[in-house]
Amino acid sequence: MYQILIVDDEIHAVEGIRSGIDWDKLGITAVFTAYTVKQAKELFEREHIDIMLCDIEMPQASGLELTEWVRERYPKTETIFLTCHADFKYAKQALQLGSLDYILKPVPFEELEKVIEKAKSKINKESEIAQYSQFGRVWFQHQPMLIERFWQDILNQTVPSNSKSVRSAATDRNIPYIEEKLLIPILISIQRWHKPLSQREEKILEYGLRNSAEEILLGPSHDGLIIELNNRRMLAILSAEAKPNHLLDVEEAGQHYIEECRQYFYCDISCYVGDKVYGHEMLEMVNKLNEMEKNNVAYNNKVFLLSSPQAHPSIYKSANIDLWSVMLMEGAFDEVLIEALQYINGFEKESLNADLLNRLYLDFQQMLHFVLHSKGIQAHQLFVDSHSQELATNASRSVTNLLEWLKHIVNMAKEYVRSLEQSQSVVQKVIQFIKLHISEDLSVKRLPIMFF
User: Fold this and answer.
1) pLDDT digits (tens, 9 = 90+) for 215-230
2) Distance CA 266, CA 89 (A)
3) pLDDT at 83
4) Residue 166 pLDDT exceeds 90
5) Residue 92: is it exposed, middle or buried by C-beta count within 10 angstroms (0-12/13-18/19+)?
6) 387 neighbors 449 (Cβ within 8 angstroms)
7) What is the pLDDT of residues 280-301, one digit of tens each?
8) Which residues pair with 381 in a beta bridge?
9) 1-15, 42-56, 77-91: which has the minimum mean pLDDT?
10) Which of 23-27, 48-52, 293-297, 413-417 has the lowest mean pLDDT?
């Protein structure tokens, strides 16, 4: 028999659910209610709660915060969320926190009954598992983690990439591994978030991205796994047996996954699909996918196939840096920015790569620093803030990032230079000119006319 707790700050909503469900038919022996998170916590300390039905949006503390608290202390409790938001913003976060399901208000009682039955089935299944031995329980809980660590060790070369070493490592760790099984690796790269996020928010969304990848890329059979990598990346390893037309199937699933991520998780993502390999060949294939990801500087939200023909990079043609430097010296910041954007956008997307983009970044950076120095301005006076540093770090990762960085630094330099010129006296300008040309033969005639 089961006990349920309904948590909602709206008394009428609580009473509506309480009176609208045939609890006896569902095998629910006790229905508890709470109108605040504090009351809910007190009930958890007094009663055994099997299922919690919880509103997300509540004053003082949200249902999401309550769920985190419950998961830490009462991990066997199944949570079902209620939300008024049809865009699923909060509902998606709820699923990321491990809730069983979510239901939109007003609550359809028939749908709620089905979800409660689903919760009971999950509780029963976990109860059966709990009957196993102590070792068996620990193994069941940690096997996914051990399997993920096994593949991470292969990718980090802790386990050598040969069939004997991989087979031996799997045997030693009691990992299910079939040496003859062909696998399909998919590198998933988060290219950027659409809005500023705290570190906690980013981690929550990454957890949601992983769950969605398991659902969409692995499919109903879940024949595969998702591995966390560094630098906002994940690796999906799929069974080739489950994907007979693997290129077409995976490409369609990848594009579906990308669209879901754009809509619900506020980010741009690209997927890089490798060829079929055996387990001991995984490292070499993933290295190829890493190179593809590194050189994708022009496209967002796209599925790339390693087997597709790769475009040859463009021959680097330096921008007209000398002319732009003179224009910047004369204060034509907006004009230079327009020309620079046109120059970058003039490249063919297919021919751009990381090396070419990095050269563009370095040339623009050198030009601007030279102009600032000639005006007696040190770069650290402008670009020490965290936003500027983050833009600079990511500038050579994609054309989108480079354009964003370029607009930012040119506009910042323009505002700083104009502010400085307006505040400087004639004497200060003369002193600055002399400092910059101290090694030259100076006379009054050489001083710029703008000083007088």
Assistant:
1) 898 877 777 889 999 8
2) 10
3) 77
4) yes
5) buried
6) no
7) 999 999 999 999 999 898 889 9
8) none
9) 77-91
10) 413-417
Which tokens is 413 given?
């330099």
- Residue 74 · residue 50 · CB < 8 Å: no
- What is the residue whose two structure tokens read 């509780």? 123
